[in-house]
Amino acid sequence: MLVLRSRLAAALAARTLAPQVCSSFATGPRQYDGTFYEFRTYYLKPSKMNEFLENTKKNIHLRTAHSELVGYWSVEFGGRMNKVFHIWKYDNFAHRTEVRKALAKDKEWQEQYLIPNLALIDKQESEITYLVPWSKLEEPPKEVHVLWWNESADSRAAGRHQSHEDPRVVAAVRESVNYLVSQQNMLLIPTSFSPLK
């Protein structure tokens, strides 16, 4: 059940609302490829984590009626606790806009999910991401999914050690490190309603 995430983030804009919402937008040639993934992170009030997850489990079908949920996880460790991380797939920005408009008009979604859960959320973050050309989204060979798949924390450590010995990896890191704004690793546990485990 180990999920580790690394991300490159270039924040173009962030605004403070109640609850706080931060967004990062990807730039460069990948933005013209159409399909993208929205990474959403909700920071929850500690005493409300279970209530939030139960309501989400009960009503996630209202949200997935509008767009594809790739996965939904709770954070075990890595940064602040009491947060959930989920990924939504969109064909393009027009598709995302259509989904957001439809959700704004969906009374059932508003009343059963959004309004009850807003009081449980301290902060939200949203990032637009694209798959790198050599990757693809697929089911892992075991009941584990990671954006960078590892069977365990120990296998991740061994793999990182091995990759540091590979000249191709070293060259790729040297080339891309100039673009790295931040990197974060988290252990994520899939929820019962997450398509990817």
TrEMBL record:
One of its GO terms (biological process) is mitophagy. Residues 37-136, 143-195 form the NIPSNAP domain. Signal peptide: none annotated. Transmembrane segments: none annotated. Belongs to the NipSnap family. This is Nipsnap homolog 3A. It comes from Canis lupus familiaris. The lineage of its organism: Eukaryota, Metazoa, Chordata, Craniata, Vertebrata.
